[in-house]
Amino acid sequence: MGVFLGSAGSFELRRTSIGEAYASEIQSSDVNATTNRFSFDFPTGQFLTGDLLAITATDGSLLDFIDPAGWAVGGPYENGNWYIHVDQVGGITLHRTFDEAISGEAATRINLLSLNRTIPITATVENIDKRCLAQVTKFEINTERQAVDVTELGDSFRQQFSGLITGSGTLTCFFDYEHRQCDDGVSPDSELPIYLNQLILRSQIGSEFFARLTLVGRGLKPGGTIADINDSVWYDIQGLITNVAMAFEPTQPIQCVVSYVTTGEIKLRTQSDSGYLTLQQSAGGRIELEELENGFIELESFS
Amino acid sequence: MAFFSGRDGSLYADGVKLARVSNWSLSSTVEALEVTDLGDDSRDYTPGLKAATGTASIFYYDDAPVPLLQHVIKTGPVTDATDKVALSLRWGDKKIDVNAIMTSAALTCQVGAVMQADIGFSVCGDYSDVVL
Predict the structure, then answer these.
(1) Is A106 helix (H, G, I), strand (E, B) or coil?
(2) What is the pLDDT of residue A300?
(3) pLDDT tens, A34-51?
(4) Residue A98 is inside which H or E element, if any?
(5) Is the CB of residue B34 less than 8 Å from the CB of residue B48?
(6) Which of A267, A280, A298, B65 could join B117 in a cystine, given CB atoms 3.0 to 4.6 angstroms apart?
(7) pTM for the complete prediction?
(8) Chain B hits for A154, Cβ within 8 Å
């Protein structure tokens, strides 16, 4: 038997807009090919720096204001997705990676070309990567089963019937808004706490997120053996931010206390085997990576 | 001497105890007919007609509420001969027996709640038996 400490926990976020597509149009004057910056009409806070934005031309035309070099393969096509950096006046620049989008440097911007027509578009947030939320000091998750009272006349004891399951929780983290050089606490691919402040204000496409709440992470376990090193326990949830509270007090660090509720199924996963993957086929063994273009893990030999 | 609670309650329809009843209620009234005369210093009344209405809620578990529902939610006409029900509202060794017609039946199927039928009835004629 072991006693587990909270230090093994982590809170990983995956950005999403739950398929809610925002419709707008890009006009020729919206594209600045000199600064590689463009825009379209969207409410402030709708799209956030670091979002993987999927843009689709709804009239079937090509997104040819994006330089062919800015596409993963070939291009232009009528749809594509890029990490975006949104500046303070709503200007958008496209980037290849999350880190580049967060930095927003001119050198990593994807080149844009002049546009001589109006393109109707839809935009959705379609991130597939989970990222650790930085500066987290504490998180809680509560799962609650509703008990429906079905006590009848004549009963001496209350009778209850299983109702629906509700999940909710809070998350506490130190406030931060940017990555810095030589930053010990925040790696370049971490989500920053300010994202949660921004998420609750996202009016049109909601404040949903996917999260993995690790309760027991990989590593040596208290009272365990070397065989337990890959064991892990985690919750997979889809959540909705309901409250973000911050207090400012002399002598105290600024913390964000974020409340959320879950929506949909709450999955409690356990892994108690080794981390090996078993392949059913015996030839041409390679695993394709979603994150990288033409990214594969090749298997040298196996039986 | 004893208190009564829902634990002591039950509801019978045509002599058969209904299952899964979560509550019943009965509201009785007597009309007050005014007989105040000129020169009186205070209003005066004489009793008029008695009337009573009631409600019952029954969990929709198997066919528990069907004996009452079938007199409201049905095809064909509601008739005095077929749809008047002998109800007995009981608690402990007390009871109120009435003949009643079902005047409403509300079925609710709701997320997060057990389905139940809310029945309303009106008493026809005098009480059949009253033990208080």
Answers:
(1) helix
(2) 60
(3) 999 999 888 877 888 888
(4) helix A98-103
(5) no
(6) B65
(7) 0.71
(8) 6-10
> How close does chain A come to B30, measured CA to CA in Å?
28
Take residue A127 and report the two structure tokens written for it: 């991130």
Tell me if A150 and B21 make a contact (CB, 8 A cut-off).
no
Asked if A154 and B11 come within 8 Å (Cβ–Cβ), the reply is: no
Alpha carbon B60 to chain centroid, angstroms: 18
**What is d(CA A197, CA A185) in angstroms, rounded to the nearest whole number?**
19
Contact between A76 and A68 under an 8 Å Cβ cutoff? The reply is yes
- B6 SS3 class: helix
For chain A, say whether B59 makes contact (Cβ under 8 Å).
yes
The strand ranges marked E within chain A are 10-15, 22-26, 31-32, 37-38, 52-57, 79-86, 92-95, 119-125, 131-132, 136-149, 160-174, 208-216, 232-247, 255-262, 267-271, 286-288, 296-298
Higher pLDDT, A4 or B128: B128
B22: nearest CA partner in chain A: A152
B8 to chain A, any CB pair closer than 8 A? The answer is yes
**A16 C-beta neighbours (distance < 10 Å), count:** 20
User: Which of B4, B5, B7 to mutate to probe the A interface, most A CBs <10 Å?
Assistant: B7
3-state secondary structure of A279: coil
User: What are the tokens at A272?
Assistant: 């108690």
Q: pLDDT tens digit string along B66-108? A: 999 999 999 999 888 889 999 999 999 999 999 999 999 999 9
A63 within 8 A of A76, measured Cβ to Cβ:
yes
Q: What value of ipTM does the predicted structure carry?
A: 0.77
